[in-house]
C-alpha cells in the first residue's frame, strides 16, 4: 500500500516520528510479568518501546497503515495507557493478496469508516494473553471481549494447532513489549457485523440503480420489446399497450387506469419506500428524501399513484442544488409540494429514452404534475438539459432507480417554471393641437401678396 524510502516504508517513518515526538526520554523498561501497563504519568504517554510502535515490524506495516486510515491512534493510545493489550496481526501478504479487492474498496471508502474501525478493533483484546496462556484442547475454547465489544474465541487442537476464531496462529509471541504482545495470524478476522454491512451495501448496489433482472428488454429506437417475455397467465402486461404502440416515449406517455380501477396490481407504497431508501444509500439526495417523507405527504401520494397503475419519472435535485433554495421560496404554504410537483413527470423515462428523444426532436416538453406547466428538455454537451437559462439543470446521475414503474433521474439544479410576466403596454401619446388663432381669409391673401414683394412683416 505505502511507498518506501531506502527499504523503510513511509507509514513506518510516520509512526516512528509521531511517537518519538510525544514520548518522554525514558530508559528501556524491563519486562513486566505482573501485567500492569508501563505509563509514565496519568496522561498515558507512549514510549518508543510500546507495542503500538512495534506494529511497524516488517510483517505488519499494512495493518499499521489501516490503523492510521481508521483514525484509531488516539483510541489505542488510551487503551495502552489503561492496560496491556494483545494484538492478532495478519501479515502484509494476507492483506495484499488474500483480501477480496471489492471488500478492500468497501473498507477504504469514507462512508464506511465505522466498519473499518470495528474490523481493526476486533483484532485487539484489552489484556495480555501470551502463547503459554492459550487454552488447552481439553478445556475447550475460551471467549475474550475485544475493543469493539465483540467476542473472539481462542482454542487449541490435539495436534498443537492454536486458532483465533477461524484464523491459525502462525507466529506466537512474535513481538513482546512491556505494554502488550503481538501474535501473527494467517488471515484477517472479520466480525459478523462488518460482513452484514458489506453484503447489504453490495446487494443494494446490484439491485438498485439498474433495471431488475426480470425486466423486459426494450429497443430504445422503437420502444418495443426485443423478445416476448414469458410471464404467468393473469399478470399485467410488461408494457402498457399504448406505450408499446407509440413511436417514441416522449410522444405517448403510458396511460393508466383512473383512481377507480378494478384491481391493484402494484404495491406502490413498497416501491416508493424502495426508491427513497435507494436515494439515501446512493448519497447526495438526502434533502429530496426528507421533503418527500417528512416535510410533505408526497411519498404517500406517489405510492397511491403507482398502486393505481400510473408510471412516474422523478427528476431529483441533489443536495447541493437544494441548498440554493431561499427561505422565501420555501416559506409560502404548499411551496415545497409545488416545487416537487414540477419535478415529477407522469411518464416512465430513462436516461436513454430521454436522450434519444432530444436527439431526435430537439426540444421536448414533458408534462408535470404541476399543471399546466411543462418542463422543457434539450440536448446539451452530450447530456440532457432541463429548463431555461440560469434556471436550467443537467442530468447528473442517470438511472438512480428504475424498476419499470418508477424512474429516478438525478439532476444538478432545482427547476422552477417560467414566470408568466405580463407585458404592460404604455398608452399611446396623445397629440395636443396648438390653439393658434386662425387668421382671416383676406388677411391671408394680403400676406401672400406682400410675400411676393419680399416683405415679411405680416409673418
- Summarize the main sheet: 7 strands, mixed
Straight-line N-to-C gap: 106 Å
Number of strands: 18
Structural class: alpha+beta
Radius of gyration: 38 Å
Pfam families: Fasciclin
Signal peptide: 1-27
Function: May be a cell surface adhesion protein.
Family: Belongs to the fasciclin-like AGP family.
Structure characterization notes:
This protein has 17 helices and 18 strands. The chain has helices at residues 10-22, 51-54, 61-69, 73-82, 92-96, 101-108, 113-121, 192-207, 241-245, 268-282, 286-295, 298-307, 319-322, 327-331, 335-341, 351-361, 441-452, and strands at 4-5, 8-9, 85-89, 124-125, 142-145, 151-156, 162-164, 167-177, 180-185, 218-219, 224-225, 312-317, 344-345, 364-367, 374-380, 383-386, 393-402, 406-411. The model is unreliable at 1-8, 21-44, 207-214, 242-264 and 420-436 (pLDDT under 50). Residues 1-27 form the signal peptide. Residues 246-267 are annotated as: Disordered. InterPro entries: FAS1_dom_sf, FAS1_domain, FLA15/16/17/18. May be a cell surface adhesion protein.
